[in-house]
Amino acid sequence: MTLRRGLAVTAAVLAAAGLTVTGASAATTGAITGIGGKCLDVTGGAAANGTRVQLWTCTGGGAQQWSAGADGTITALGKCLDVAGGSTQNGSAVQIYDCNGTAAQRWTADAGRLVNAGAGKCLDATGVSSVDGTPLQTWSCSTGANQQWVLPASAPAGGPCPQGPFGNPLPSPVVAATAIRDGFNFLEGPTWDAASQTLLLTNMHDGTGAENVQPSDILRFTPSTGAFTTFVAGAGSNGLALSRDGKSVYAATHDQRSVSAYDLATGQRRTIAADYQGRLFNSPNDVTEGADGTVYFTDPDFQRANRPDRMSGKTSVFRVRGGVVTLIDDTIREPNGIELSPDGKTLYVGGNATGKIYRYPVAADGSTGARSDFASLAGTDGGTVDCAGNVYQVTYGDGKVHVFSPAGQALGMITAGPNATNLAFGGPDRKTLYLTSGTPSGGGDSGNFALYSVRLNVPGWPY
């Protein structure tokens, strides 16, 4: 089955609702409210095709979290707001359904109303009612209150984070994450796709063939159903990061010793960085993107396997912009996790074999300045940041996440399985931290990794 990524309402809709749009493909996620202040709600929170959409008292639950972005669709629970059967008749049922690109799933704005592109009719609360359970339909457009809708408030102009100030991100100095599901060989690289409200992550397998290269798949986890599905089989990926336009997932792809991007609508792969000055990378590991489109990545040699060294023994940090790869630093032994501060002015890199987390100032053109030490920490793996600028750094050997303030002060830690690899914030409010941790394989894909989660106090930065 071809997976199609639901984005959401056009820029015209966002503008009509008084929203701030950052770029043509900006997306917002939250409640859509109508008559009586009631919320657009997926009946029973069911993600099945054909589930009716209704009005209900606002609860903040996932069934009321709608994403609005650039292609005209409105999504919740990974499905599109849809006119049943593509009908153009008054009274046609409004439901959720697999996103399919038809006009029945495209919505535009007119004086606060949501007009379906296929029917030319407005989203309407049946019977001019605001009673819980009122079904939604399409009807000839009018000026009635039952056709007036308020979309989710947009993110501040500086990015997708709410305004501070923020308190301590941790509920206590030591917090234990809870396992969601185990039985995976080796999990890595989680990243949150807000439009579909799902988590993408890599499952790596044991090395095969003469070169002993590890194949891997990109999985998709849907929290609302608990389901894990395969998004891209044979992706060759390690670390993942959502693109700023929400249309692709960047992947550090050790299968081709490159950095790639997978289109979230089609799964099609394209190469972002193939080599540096004609020399193949070792095995790109983690990746992130700045607001200007600069992609930053680390290149240790963990998954180079039996392939020849083309980097003369160096493991490095690179950036790529406009197809041009530039070296940032080749003096860190086994650089691993990489992330940008929310304001984009600081790049953090974990030195897996050096016992340090490093930081670099980032200029307006995406270039970086002189490196400095941020914190001392051995065995670093993946990392992320939250909206307050706190840094979350995994250490592989003890299954922990160490949390630091932007000034480098240790705030506490999160515990998971025995060998933690990576992490990402997600959920409708982005306060759920997802972690990958477990026991590596002893051969024959015998590893036992799990996805963990924990609720924190500060929302996370999505990139």
Automatic annotation (TrEMBL):
What range(s) does the Ricin B lectin domain occupy?
29-152
Residue span of the signal peptide, if any? 1-26
Q: Which PANTHER family match?
A: LACTONASE DRP35, LIPOPROTEIN-RELATED
Q: What is this protein called?
A: SMP-30/gluconolactonase/LRE family protein
Keywords of the record: Hydrolase, Signal
The record's listing under SUPFAM superfamilies reads: Calcium-dependent phosphotriesterase, Ricin B-like lectins
**Record organism:** Amycolatopsis heterodermiae
Q: What is the lineage of its organism?
A: Bacteria, Bacillati, Actinomycetota, Actinomycetes, Pseudonocardiales
User: What family, per the record?
Assistant: Belongs to the SMP-30/CGR1 family.
Q: Which PROSITE patterns match?
A: RICIN_B_LECTIN
